[in-house]
Amino acid sequence: MLINSRSEATPTSAHDRVYRGLRSRIMHGEIGPGAALTLRGIGAEFEVSMTPAREAVRRLVAEGALTLSTSGRVATPELSNERIEELAALRSLIEVELASRALPRAHMALIDRLQTINGAISDAVDRKDAVAYIRTNLEFHRTLYLRAQAPAMLAMAETVWLQLGPTMRALYGRLRRTEPPHFHRLIIAALKAGDEPGLRLAVRSDVTQGLKMLAG
Amino acid sequence: MLINSRSEATPTSAHDRVYRGLRSRIMHGEIGPGAALTLRGIGAEFEVSMTPAREAVRRLVAEGALTLSTSGRVATPELSNERIEELAALRSLIEVELASRALPRAHMALIDRLQTINGAISDAVDRKDAVAYIRTNLEFHRTLYLRAQAPAMLAMAETVWLQLGPTMRALYGRLRRTEPPHFHRLIIAALKAGDEPGLRLAVRSDVTQGLKMLAG
DNA sequence: CATGCTTCCATGTGATCACAAATGGACACA
DNA sequence: TGTGTCCATTTGTGATCACATGGAAGCATG
Protein backbone atom coordinates (compact mmCIF):
# COMPACT_ATOMS: atom_id res chain seq x y z
CA MET A 1 0.00 0.00 0.00
CA LEU A 2 1.31 3.44 -0.84
CA ILE A 3 -0.26 5.18 2.14
CA ASN A 4 1.84 3.10 4.47
CA SER A 5 2.40 5.28 7.52
CA ARG A 6 3.84 2.55 9.73
CA SER A 7 5.91 4.74 11.98
CA GLU A 8 7.37 1.62 13.53
CA ALA A 9 10.83 1.91 12.06
CA THR A 10 11.97 -0.91 9.80
CA PRO A 11 15.02 -2.18 11.70
CA THR A 12 16.50 -3.53 8.51
CA SER A 13 15.51 -3.26 4.87
CA ALA A 14 13.09 -5.73 3.38
CA HIS A 15 15.40 -7.16 0.77
CA ASP A 16 17.99 -7.78 3.44
CA ARG A 17 15.58 -9.75 5.59
CA VAL A 18 14.62 -11.85 2.59
CA TYR A 19 18.25 -12.29 1.61
CA ARG A 20 19.30 -13.40 5.07
CA GLY A 21 16.37 -15.76 5.43
CA LEU A 22 16.97 -17.47 2.11
CA ARG A 23 20.73 -17.54 2.55
CA SER A 24 20.45 -19.21 5.93
CA ARG A 25 18.11 -21.85 4.59
CA ILE A 26 20.27 -22.62 1.61
CA MET A 27 23.56 -22.68 3.47
CA HIS A 28 22.22 -24.99 6.14
CA GLY A 29 20.76 -27.43 3.71
CA GLU A 30 17.11 -26.80 4.44
CA ILE A 31 16.48 -26.77 0.71
CA GLY A 32 17.52 -29.71 -1.41
CA PRO A 33 19.27 -29.36 -4.77
CA GLY A 34 17.10 -28.57 -7.76
CA ALA A 35 14.24 -27.06 -5.77
CA ALA A 36 12.36 -24.34 -7.64
CA LEU A 37 11.48 -20.96 -6.16
CA THR A 38 9.20 -18.19 -7.41
CA LEU A 39 9.50 -14.49 -6.76
CA ARG A 40 5.85 -14.20 -5.83
CA GLY A 41 6.14 -17.15 -3.53
CA ILE A 42 9.15 -15.70 -1.76
CA GLY A 43 7.44 -12.35 -1.51
CA ALA A 44 4.32 -13.90 -0.01
CA GLU A 45 6.32 -15.89 2.48
CA PHE A 46 8.29 -12.90 3.74
CA GLU A 47 5.32 -10.57 3.35
CA VAL A 48 7.00 -8.25 0.89
CA SER A 49 6.40 -7.41 -2.74
CA MET A 50 8.25 -8.88 -5.67
CA THR A 51 10.84 -6.12 -5.74
CA PRO A 52 12.77 -7.03 -2.57
CA ALA A 53 12.33 -10.70 -3.39
CA ARG A 54 13.96 -10.15 -6.75
CA GLU A 55 16.85 -8.22 -5.27
CA ALA A 56 17.53 -10.95 -2.72
CA VAL A 57 17.40 -13.60 -5.42
CA ARG A 58 19.75 -11.62 -7.66
CA ARG A 59 22.22 -11.36 -4.85
CA LEU A 60 22.07 -15.06 -4.12
CA VAL A 61 22.47 -15.85 -7.80
CA ALA A 62 25.56 -13.65 -7.86
CA GLU A 63 26.96 -15.68 -4.97
CA GLY A 64 26.21 -18.96 -6.68
CA ALA A 65 23.61 -19.98 -4.13
CA LEU A 66 20.86 -20.05 -6.74
CA THR A 67 20.79 -20.56 -10.48
CA LEU A 68 18.76 -18.73 -13.08
CA SER A 69 17.53 -20.73 -16.03
CA THR A 70 17.57 -19.07 -19.44
CA SER A 71 13.94 -18.16 -18.99
CA GLY A 72 14.70 -16.61 -15.63
CA ARG A 73 13.35 -19.38 -13.44
CA VAL A 74 14.98 -19.59 -10.05
CA ALA A 75 16.19 -22.83 -8.49
CA THR A 76 18.84 -24.22 -6.19
CA PRO A 77 21.74 -25.60 -8.20
CA GLU A 78 22.36 -29.29 -8.84
CA LEU A 79 26.13 -29.50 -8.82
CA SER A 80 28.11 -31.80 -11.05
CA ASN A 81 30.79 -33.96 -9.49
CA GLU A 82 33.50 -31.84 -11.09
CA ARG A 83 32.00 -28.72 -9.56
CA ILE A 84 31.82 -30.35 -6.15
CA GLU A 85 35.46 -31.34 -6.42
CA GLU A 86 36.39 -27.77 -7.31
CA LEU A 87 34.45 -26.30 -4.44
CA ALA A 88 36.00 -28.78 -2.03
CA ALA A 89 39.43 -27.78 -3.30
CA LEU A 90 38.55 -24.13 -2.75
CA ARG A 91 37.37 -24.90 0.78
CA SER A 92 40.65 -26.65 1.41
CA LEU A 93 42.78 -23.81 0.06
CA ILE A 94 40.98 -21.01 1.84
CA GLU A 95 40.17 -22.73 5.11
CA VAL A 96 43.65 -24.13 5.63
CA GLU A 97 44.96 -20.59 5.26
CA LEU A 98 42.32 -19.24 7.65
CA ALA A 99 43.12 -21.88 10.25
CA SER A 100 46.79 -21.19 9.89
CA ARG A 101 46.21 -17.49 10.50
CA ALA A 102 43.98 -18.21 13.46
CA LEU A 103 46.49 -20.51 15.13
CA PRO A 104 48.71 -17.85 16.77
CA ARG A 105 45.62 -16.17 18.22
CA ALA A 106 43.91 -19.30 19.48
CA HIS A 107 43.72 -19.14 23.28
CA MET A 108 42.02 -21.45 25.76
CA ALA A 109 38.67 -19.63 25.63
CA LEU A 110 38.45 -20.35 21.91
CA ILE A 111 39.32 -24.01 22.35
CA ASP A 112 36.70 -24.34 25.05
CA ARG A 113 34.10 -22.84 22.77
CA LEU A 114 35.10 -25.20 19.95
CA GLN A 115 34.71 -28.18 22.27
CA THR A 116 31.26 -26.98 23.31
CA ILE A 117 30.24 -26.69 19.68
CA ASN A 118 31.65 -30.17 19.08
CA GLY A 119 29.30 -31.44 21.76
CA ALA A 120 26.38 -29.84 19.93
CA ILE A 121 27.51 -31.58 16.74
CA SER A 122 27.48 -34.94 18.51
CA ASP A 123 23.96 -34.19 19.72
CA ALA A 124 22.85 -33.45 16.19
CA VAL A 125 24.41 -36.71 15.05
CA ASP A 126 22.58 -38.62 17.78
CA ARG A 127 19.30 -36.95 16.86
CA LYS A 128 19.97 -37.65 13.17
CA ASP A 129 19.20 -33.97 12.52
CA ALA A 130 20.93 -33.16 9.23
CA VAL A 131 20.18 -29.44 9.30
CA ALA A 132 21.45 -29.05 12.86
CA TYR A 133 24.51 -31.07 11.94
CA ILE A 134 25.37 -28.81 9.02
CA ARG A 135 24.67 -25.65 11.00
CA THR A 136 26.77 -26.58 14.01
CA ASN A 137 29.53 -27.95 11.82
CA LEU A 138 29.77 -24.64 9.96
CA GLU A 139 29.62 -22.82 13.28
CA PHE A 140 32.66 -24.79 14.42
CA HIS A 141 34.62 -23.67 11.40
CA ARG A 142 33.41 -20.09 11.52
CA THR A 143 34.29 -19.77 15.19
CA LEU A 144 37.83 -20.85 14.47
CA TYR A 145 38.25 -18.70 11.38
CA LEU A 146 36.91 -15.58 13.03
CA ARG A 147 40.15 -15.55 15.01
CA ALA A 148 42.10 -15.17 11.79
CA GLN A 149 40.91 -11.55 11.51
CA ALA A 150 40.55 -11.97 7.77
CA PRO A 151 37.02 -10.90 6.82
CA ALA A 152 37.52 -11.09 3.06
CA MET A 153 38.78 -14.65 3.27
CA LEU A 154 36.01 -15.66 5.64
CA ALA A 155 33.45 -14.18 3.27
CA MET A 156 34.93 -16.23 0.45
CA ALA A 157 34.77 -19.39 2.52
CA GLU A 158 31.14 -18.71 3.40
CA THR A 159 30.32 -18.19 -0.24
CA VAL A 160 31.68 -21.65 -0.95
CA TRP A 161 29.62 -23.09 1.92
CA LEU A 162 26.60 -21.40 0.44
CA GLN A 163 27.15 -23.01 -2.93
CA LEU A 164 27.55 -26.40 -1.32
CA GLY A 165 24.54 -26.03 0.99
CA PRO A 166 21.87 -27.92 -0.93
CA THR A 167 24.37 -30.59 -1.94
CA MET A 168 25.59 -31.05 1.62
CA ARG A 169 22.06 -31.88 2.64
CA ALA A 170 21.84 -34.59 0.03
CA LEU A 171 25.33 -35.76 0.89
CA TYR A 172 24.96 -36.00 4.65
CA GLY A 173 21.56 -37.52 4.16
CA ARG A 174 22.98 -40.64 2.54
CA LEU A 175 25.73 -40.82 5.12
CA ARG A 176 25.48 -43.37 7.90
CA ARG A 177 25.59 -40.98 10.79
CA THR A 178 27.34 -42.95 13.47
CA GLU A 179 30.64 -41.11 13.52
CA PRO A 180 31.24 -38.18 15.81
CA PRO A 181 33.40 -35.43 14.30
CA HIS A 182 36.74 -37.18 14.22
CA PHE A 183 38.82 -34.55 12.43
CA HIS A 184 37.46 -31.83 14.65
CA ARG A 185 39.23 -33.45 17.56
CA LEU A 186 42.43 -33.50 15.54
CA ILE A 187 41.96 -29.78 14.83
CA ILE A 188 41.53 -29.04 18.52
CA ALA A 189 44.54 -31.14 19.43
CA ALA A 190 46.69 -29.32 16.88
CA LEU A 191 45.47 -25.97 18.19
CA LYS A 192 46.40 -26.96 21.74
CA ALA A 193 49.84 -28.14 20.64
CA GLY A 194 50.48 -25.14 18.41
CA ASP A 195 51.20 -27.65 15.66
CA GLU A 196 50.71 -25.78 12.39
CA PRO A 197 51.44 -28.61 9.92
CA GLY A 198 49.13 -30.87 11.92
CA LEU A 199 46.43 -28.20 11.90
CA ARG A 200 46.70 -27.72 8.16
CA LEU A 201 46.42 -31.44 7.57
CA ALA A 202 43.49 -31.84 9.97
CA VAL A 203 41.53 -29.00 8.36
CA ARG A 204 42.23 -30.28 4.88
CA SER A 205 41.11 -33.75 5.88
CA ASP A 206 37.95 -32.51 7.55
CA VAL A 207 36.99 -30.37 4.60
CA THR A 208 37.53 -33.00 1.93
CA GLN A 209 36.18 -35.84 4.03
CA GLY A 210 32.57 -35.51 2.87
CA LEU A 211 33.70 -35.61 -0.72
CA LYS A 212 34.89 -39.17 -0.38
CA MET A 213 31.30 -40.31 0.09
CA LEU A 214 30.41 -38.92 -3.27
CA ALA A 215 33.20 -40.43 -5.29
CA GLY A 216 32.86 -43.81 -3.64
CA MET B 1 6.47 3.52 -21.30
CA LEU B 2 3.96 0.76 -20.86
CA ILE B 3 2.85 0.68 -24.49
CA ASN B 4 6.32 -0.33 -25.54
CA SER B 5 5.85 -2.44 -28.63
CA ARG B 6 9.50 -2.59 -29.58
CA SER B 7 9.36 -5.82 -31.52
CA GLU B 8 13.13 -5.70 -31.84
CA ALA B 9 13.91 -8.51 -29.46
CA THR B 10 16.03 -7.65 -26.46
CA PRO B 11 19.08 -9.85 -27.04
CA THR B 12 19.91 -9.79 -23.35
CA SER B 13 18.10 -8.49 -20.32
CA ALA B 14 18.53 -4.90 -19.28
CA HIS B 15 19.95 -5.56 -15.85
CA ASP B 16 22.52 -7.86 -17.40
CA ARG B 17 23.74 -5.21 -19.80
CA VAL B 18 24.06 -2.76 -16.96
CA TYR B 19 25.80 -5.34 -14.80
CA ARG B 20 28.30 -6.25 -17.45
CA GLY B 21 29.02 -2.65 -18.30
CA LEU B 22 29.64 -1.61 -14.73
CA ARG B 23 31.59 -4.74 -13.91
CA SER B 24 33.92 -4.25 -16.82
CA ARG B 25 34.60 -0.66 -15.85
CA ILE B 26 35.25 -1.49 -12.24
CA MET B 27 37.43 -4.51 -12.88
CA HIS B 28 39.58 -2.67 -15.38
CA GLY B 29 40.15 0.30 -13.15
CA GLU B 30 38.16 2.82 -15.14
CA ILE B 31 36.63 4.04 -11.88
CA GLY B 32 38.84 5.17 -9.03
CA PRO B 33 38.26 4.13 -5.42
CA GLY B 34 35.66 6.08 -3.49
CA ALA B 35 33.73 7.23 -6.55
CA ALA B 36 30.01 7.67 -5.92
CA LEU B 37 27.30 6.32 -8.19
CA THR B 38 23.57 6.95 -8.27
CA LEU B 39 20.85 4.62 -9.45
CA ARG B 40 19.21 7.30 -11.53
CA GLY B 41 22.53 8.21 -13.06
CA ILE B 42 23.28 4.62 -13.98
CA GLY B 43 19.80 4.20 -15.37
CA ALA B 44 20.12 7.33 -17.49
CA GLU B 45 23.50 6.26 -18.81
CA PHE B 46 22.34 2.81 -19.87
CA GLU B 47 18.91 4.10 -20.88
CA VAL B 48 17.00 1.92 -18.46
CA SER B 49 14.85 2.64 -15.45
CA MET B 50 15.99 2.42 -11.86
CA THR B 51 14.89 -1.18 -11.49
CA PRO B 52 17.55 -2.86 -13.64
CA ALA B 53 20.11 -0.39 -12.36
CA ARG B 54 19.34 -1.41 -8.81
CA GLU B 55 19.56 -5.09 -9.62
CA ALA B 56 22.94 -4.67 -11.26
CA VAL B 57 24.19 -2.66 -8.30
CA ARG B 58 22.93 -5.24 -5.83
CA ARG B 59 24.76 -7.92 -7.67
CA LEU B 60 27.98 -5.96 -7.73
CA VAL B 61 27.62 -5.19 -4.04
CA ALA B 62 27.23 -8.90 -3.39
CA GLU B 63 30.50 -9.49 -5.23
CA GLY B 64 32.29 -6.80 -3.28
CA ALA B 65 32.75 -4.57 -6.31
CA LEU B 66 30.67 -1.80 -4.77
CA THR B 67 29.86 -0.78 -1.23
CA LEU B 68 26.56 0.39 0.18
CA SER B 69 26.71 3.01 2.91
CA THR B 70 24.25 2.68 5.79
CA SER B 71 21.99 5.15 4.04
CA GLY B 72 22.14 3.10 0.87
CA ARG B 73 24.53 5.30 -1.06
CA VAL B 74 26.53 3.42 -3.68
CA ALA B 75 30.25 3.88 -4.15
CA THR B 76 33.37 2.00 -5.18
CA PRO B 77 35.21 0.71 -2.12
CA GLU B 78 38.30 2.29 -0.63
CA LEU B 79 40.22 -0.69 0.61
CA SER B 80 42.30 -0.67 3.77
CA ASN B 81 45.83 -2.01 3.62
CA GLU B 82 44.81 -5.07 5.60
CA ARG B 83 42.06 -5.80 3.11
CA ILE B 84 44.41 -5.42 0.19
CA GLU B 85 46.83 -7.84 1.81
CA GLU B 86 44.03 -10.34 2.30
CA LEU B 87 42.86 -10.06 -1.28
CA ALA B 88 46.41 -10.45 -2.54
CA ALA B 89 46.76 -13.58 -0.42
CA LEU B 90 43.53 -14.92 -1.90
CA ARG B 91 44.78 -14.19 -5.40
CA SER B 92 47.95 -16.05 -4.58
CA LEU B 93 46.16 -19.09 -3.15
CA ILE B 94 43.61 -19.45 -5.93
CA GLU B 95 45.72 -18.47 -8.90
CA VAL B 96 48.65 -20.66 -7.96
CA GLU B 97 46.23 -23.57 -7.85
CA LEU B 98 44.69 -22.57 -11.19
CA ALA B 99 48.08 -22.29 -12.83
CA SER B 100 49.09 -25.62 -11.42
CA ARG B 101 45.98 -27.25 -12.85
CA ALA B 102 46.52 -25.56 -16.20
CA LEU B 103 50.12 -26.71 -16.49
CA PRO B 104 49.50 -30.27 -17.75
CA ARG B 105 47.17 -28.92 -20.44
CA ALA B 106 49.36 -26.05 -21.60
CA HIS B 107 50.38 -26.68 -25.19
CA MET B 108 52.30 -24.51 -27.61
CA ALA B 109 49.25 -22.70 -28.94
CA LEU B 110 48.50 -21.44 -25.45
CA ILE B 111 52.06 -20.27 -24.88
CA ASP B 112 52.00 -18.42 -28.20
CA ARG B 113 48.81 -16.69 -27.21
CA LEU B 114 50.28 -15.72 -23.86
CA GLN B 115 53.30 -14.23 -25.56
CA THR B 116 51.08 -12.22 -27.88
CA ILE B 117 49.17 -10.85 -24.91
CA ASN B 118 52.48 -10.04 -23.26
CA GLY B 119 53.32 -7.91 -26.27
CA ALA B 120 50.06 -6.03 -25.83
CA ILE B 121 50.95 -5.44 -22.20
CA SER B 122 54.28 -3.93 -23.23
CA ASP B 123 52.45 -1.66 -25.65
CA ALA B 124 50.15 -0.49 -22.88
CA VAL B 125 53.16 0.19 -20.70
CA ASP B 126 54.78 2.22 -23.46
CA ARG B 127 51.60 4.21 -24.00
CA LYS B 128 51.27 4.71 -20.25
CA ASP B 129 47.68 3.48 -20.60
CA ALA B 130 46.74 2.23 -17.14
CA VAL B 131 43.35 0.81 -18.14
CA ALA B 132 44.79 -1.08 -21.09
CA TYR B 133 47.57 -2.35 -18.86
CA ILE B 134 45.15 -3.73 -16.29
CA ARG B 135 42.88 -5.21 -18.92
CA THR B 136 45.60 -7.00 -20.85
CA ASN B 137 47.28 -8.13 -17.65
CA LEU B 138 44.08 -9.77 -16.48
CA GLU B 139 43.59 -11.23 -19.93
CA PHE B 140 46.99 -12.89 -19.61
CA HIS B 141 45.99 -14.54 -16.37
CA ARG B 142 42.51 -15.51 -17.55
CA THR B 143 43.87 -17.07 -20.71
CA LEU B 144 46.16 -19.26 -18.67
CA TYR B 145 43.57 -20.20 -16.08
CA LEU B 146 40.93 -21.09 -18.64
CA ARG B 147 43.05 -24.13 -19.39
CA ALA B 148 42.59 -25.34 -15.84
CA GLN B 149 38.97 -26.25 -16.65
CA ALA B 150 37.92 -25.05 -13.22
CA PRO B 151 35.10 -22.54 -13.70
CA ALA B 152 34.24 -22.14 -10.03
CA MET B 153 37.83 -21.31 -9.15
CA LEU B 154 38.16 -18.93 -12.06
CA ALA B 155 34.97 -17.17 -10.99
CA MET B 156 36.42 -16.77 -7.50
CA ALA B 157 39.61 -15.32 -8.90
CA GLU B 158 37.67 -12.87 -11.04
CA THR B 159 35.65 -11.78 -8.03
CA VAL B 160 38.90 -10.91 -6.29
CA TRP B 161 40.08 -8.99 -9.34
CA LEU B 162 36.80 -7.13 -9.30
CA GLN B 163 37.27 -6.10 -5.70
CA LEU B 164 40.79 -4.92 -6.43
CA GLY B 165 39.84 -3.06 -9.63
CA PRO B 166 39.54 0.51 -8.39
CA THR B 167 42.55 0.06 -6.12
CA MET B 168 44.66 -1.35 -8.93
CA ARG B 169 44.05 1.81 -10.90
CA ALA B 170 45.32 3.94 -8.05
CA LEU B 171 48.19 1.53 -7.49
CA TYR B 172 49.45 1.27 -11.04
CA GLY B 173 48.98 5.00 -11.41
CA ARG B 174 51.66 5.79 -8.85
CA LEU B 175 53.93 3.12 -10.28
CA ARG B 176 56.81 4.19 -12.47
CA ARG B 177 55.85 2.23 -15.54
CA THR B 178 59.13 1.37 -17.11
CA GLU B 179 59.16 -2.33 -16.41
CA PRO B 180 57.80 -4.80 -18.91
CA PRO B 181 56.06 -7.76 -17.30
CA HIS B 182 59.01 -9.55 -15.79
CA PHE B 183 57.23 -12.33 -13.91
CA HIS B 184 55.08 -13.10 -16.93
CA ARG B 185 58.19 -14.22 -18.73
CA LEU B 186 59.04 -16.45 -15.81
CA ILE B 187 55.55 -17.92 -15.97
CA ILE B 188 55.95 -18.67 -19.67
CA ALA B 189 59.37 -20.18 -19.13
CA ALA B 190 58.04 -22.44 -16.40
CA LEU B 191 55.16 -23.50 -18.64
CA LYS B 192 57.56 -24.39 -21.43
CA ALA B 193 59.77 -26.37 -19.06
CA GLY B 194 56.85 -28.10 -17.35
CA ASP B 195 58.35 -26.84 -14.09
CA GLU B 196 55.51 -26.84 -11.58
CA PRO B 197 57.37 -25.46 -8.54
CA GLY B 198 58.80 -22.71 -10.72
CA LEU B 199 55.36 -21.92 -12.10
CA ARG B 200 53.85 -21.71 -8.64
CA LEU B 201 56.58 -19.36 -7.49
CA ALA B 202 56.34 -17.19 -10.59
CA VAL B 203 52.57 -16.81 -10.30
CA ARG B 204 52.80 -16.05 -6.60
CA SER B 205 55.46 -13.44 -7.25
CA ASP B 206 53.52 -11.82 -10.08
CA VAL B 207 50.35 -11.63 -8.06
CA THR B 208 51.90 -10.17 -4.92
CA GLN B 209 54.30 -7.91 -6.78
CA GLY B 210 51.98 -4.90 -6.96
CA LEU B 211 51.40 -5.13 -3.24
CA LYS B 212 55.01 -4.30 -2.50
CA MET B 213 54.45 -0.80 -3.89
CA LEU B 214 51.79 -0.16 -1.33
CA ALA B 215 53.64 -1.31 1.75
CA GLY B 216 56.82 0.45 0.70
C1' DC C 1 34.48 35.11 10.72
C1' DA C 2 33.02 30.74 12.65
C1' DT C 3 29.29 27.73 14.05
C1' DG C 4 24.86 25.87 14.52
C1' DC C 5 20.27 25.22 12.61
C1' DT C 6 16.85 24.86 9.01
C1' DT C 7 15.24 23.97 4.60
C1' DC C 8 15.20 21.88 0.20
C1' DC C 9 16.66 18.75 -3.16
C1' DA C 10 18.64 14.51 -4.41
C1' DT C 11 18.52 9.63 -3.66
C1' DG C 12 17.28 4.92 -2.20
C1' DT C 13 13.22 1.87 -1.10
C1' DG C 14 9.40 -0.77 -2.02
C1' DA C 15 4.66 -1.47 -4.13
C1' DT C 16 2.02 -1.91 -8.19
C1' DC C 17 1.06 -2.56 -12.88
C1' DA C 18 1.33 -3.85 -17.92
C1' DC C 19 3.44 -7.01 -20.76
C1' DA C 20 5.81 -11.13 -22.79
C1' DA C 21 7.23 -15.56 -22.60
C1' DA C 22 7.32 -20.06 -20.96
C1' DT C 23 5.25 -23.87 -18.76
C1' DG C 24 1.95 -27.35 -17.99
C1' DG C 25 -2.19 -29.63 -18.84
C1' DA C 26 -6.30 -30.68 -21.50
C1' DC C 27 -8.04 -32.37 -25.54
C1' DA C 28 -8.26 -34.26 -30.06
C1' DC C 29 -6.53 -37.50 -33.24
C1' DA C 30 -3.87 -41.37 -34.94
C1' DT D 1 -2.60 -45.73 -25.61
C1' DG D 2 0.69 -42.57 -27.33
C1' DT D 3 1.48 -38.00 -29.38
C1' DG D 4 1.06 -33.46 -30.98
C1' DT D 5 -1.22 -28.98 -30.59
C1' DC D 6 -3.34 -25.26 -28.38
C1' DC D 7 -4.77 -22.46 -24.63
C1' DA D 8 -4.81 -20.71 -19.94
C1' DT D 9 -2.19 -19.70 -16.11
C1' DT D 10 1.95 -18.93 -13.91
C1' DT D 11 6.13 -16.30 -13.78
C1' DG D 12 9.85 -12.99 -14.66
C1' DT D 13 10.84 -8.20 -16.45
C1' DG D 14 10.96 -3.45 -16.34
C1' DA D 15 8.69 1.19 -15.71
C1' DT D 16 6.58 4.36 -12.69
C1' DC D 17 5.16 6.34 -8.52
C1' DA D 18 4.73 7.71 -3.50
C1' DC D 19 7.43 8.16 0.41
C1' DA D 20 11.24 8.73 3.83
C1' DT D 21 15.65 10.03 4.67
C1' DG D 22 20.09 12.05 4.42
C1' DG D 23 23.19 15.49 2.80
C1' DA D 24 24.39 20.02 1.36
C1' DA D 25 23.62 24.71 0.92
C1' DG D 26 21.99 28.89 2.85
C1' DC D 27 20.92 31.75 6.68
C1' DA D 28 21.10 33.52 11.15
C1' DT D 29 23.49 34.19 15.40
C1' DG D 30 27.42 34.40 18.52
Automatic annotation (TrEMBL), chains A, B:
Pfam families: FCD (PF07729), GntR (PF00392). The keyword Transcription applies. GO terms for molecular function: DNA binding; DNA-binding transcription factor activity. The keyword tRNA-binding does not apply. Residues 12-78 form the HTH gntR-type domain. It comes from the Bacteria. InterPro entries: GntR_C, TF_FadR/GntR_C, Tscrpt_reg_HTH_GntR, WH-like_DNA-bd_sf, WH_DNA-bd_sf. Keywords: DNA-binding, Transcription, Transcription regulation. PANTHER family: HTH-TYPE TRANSCRIPTIONAL REGULATOR MCBR, TRANSCRIPTIONAL REGULATOR, GNTR FAMILY. This is HTH-type transcriptional regulator McbR. The lineage of its organism: Bacteria, Pseudomonadati, Pseudomonadota, Alphaproteobacteria, Rhodobacterales. The gene is mcbR_1.
